[in-house]
Amino acid sequence: MERMIIKHTKGSKANQVEEFPLNHYNELILGRESTSTVQYDADRDDLVGRQHAKISRDPNVADGFLLEDTASRNGTFLNGQKLSAPLPIRPGDIVQLGPGGPEFTFDVEPRPQNATKPTRIADVSAIGNTPPPTRVADADSVPTRSIAPSTIGKAAVGKATVERMISSTVTETKKKEGRKYAAVGAVAGLVVLILFGVVIGGGYLYSSSQQAALKSELDSKSSQLESEAANMKSKIEADKASGGISAAEVSDKYGKSVVYIQGSWQLVNKESKSQIYHQFMPNSLEALSKIYKKNYGKGPIVQGGGNAIPVYVQVGETHEPMLTEEKNDLSYPIGSSGGTCSGFIVTTDGFILTNKHCSSPWKATYYFPQQYPPGVLVAQDGSILRAGVEAPGDWIPDNTKAVPRQFQGQFDAVQKLSVMLPGSDATIEAQKVQDSLRHDVGMIKISVPGNLPKVDLYDSWDTLKKGDGLVVMGYPGTAPMTYSPIRSQNFLDTAGKTAVIPDPTVSVTSVGNIMKNSDPNEQANVRVSQMGDSIRYAGSLTAGGNSGGPVFDMQGRVIGIHFAGSGSQAGNVAGIAVPIRYGMQLFPGTP
Fold this sequence. Notes:
Radius of gyration: 30 Å
Distance between the termini: 15 Å
Number of strands: 34
Number of helices: 6
Shape: globular
Largest sheet: 8 strands, antiparallel
């Protein structure tokens, strides 16, 4: 098996085909959240949960898969039967998300030799038109199995898939004709059988001829693609041999595609949208005795901790901040004000790749402010465990465990997520599109008239070598900024303003190391990289703010996304990039 195939037959994605190579995907998350692998329309597919179900490899069965309902409100149906526990899912099985909800057929390519088509479940009832707005499906409704034939359109289809579709069409034609003429009387039946033989024979010969023609066309296309791939490989090798283009040429050609990203965010309650704060308490034993009804005396709990100190909650082997919705003198807001990142335009209509810790900073490690005082650690029952506790270095707000997951991050309503193009003083509001589930990659989008300059992407992960030249571009926070005074011509607002004029920094370096995790399906020679799949290089001109910037090869193609570094405040001694293949996976239809 090489890939999982989802053939949508009902819902907003009807007649679409999605393919997921097994060397990149061990499981598929089905839902309406932007992070879902198979994402459904948030409005039209309102029977589907945010994370409704998942398909994963069966650890106990070679070439096997499991379908699991992830506590959805409307349930998941496999071949018409509602799941109550994870069940094996086989090629040809039909999955429905909620009664009357979207359907798809699961398949793999190529199919295992022992794969058989499942027993078909007859239709029991028809569900009417789905009413609008969010709702919970009637528990007594029976899912229908009216399946429209897939129209492939321009979706990428493998050669084996086309051959299987042709064979299936011939077989289905024979069945339909057989049922049609079985009801004819005995006398007419003889004539009909003769005609039936002629029709089926002729149809079979026609279909066989059509199949042969399609095979010939596919063979021709395959040869053409192999030839083009060989030519491309030769061109790449020739470019490398000639030294490619200079860093100055890379900057001139693609510098206008490197954007400056900024925004402020806060943690809020999902339901009430109230801002979330870190709970502090007075730094005195007297105050503690009032809370816990014990006589601790009057001295401070933490020496040198100031008048108020933070409270942390024990969670397993680590601890998290105690969170509250109360805003007062003893609370500190969870969030960040005025963070900046880099990014690069990948389509002329404004899609931009950056880091996930830029597009969704609440999904990354939270950095507490400098000079944050040590605090006290309490158990789940509220008893004091110890004092002088430092802030945790591994807390991710989106993964809070001390309380049920009732929080979410959002960008500030005033200082929204925004983008500035190089050389321009205009600030453009951006929308978050989706985040990678596998690496530090996020996608955002801006909408402006006309076509924007974009970069070229190239997945060199399998051919990259130590010593290959690189060009890194972005907006390090240590670099001096350029400002422009703006004199207003608006008589309703005559106040002068000063605007930042973004100008990306160019750093020329080379691949110092290539850090790879081993294939997840490989049992022998297992290797685990501390930074995940990543490219390491000298990064003397990169620093905080460079996150999300493009890493070019010497042919002017983006092969990575800068996401981390190590070094001094003046700059990173080493830079680390995500291979661009993880960014390309956010494009539909890209492996």
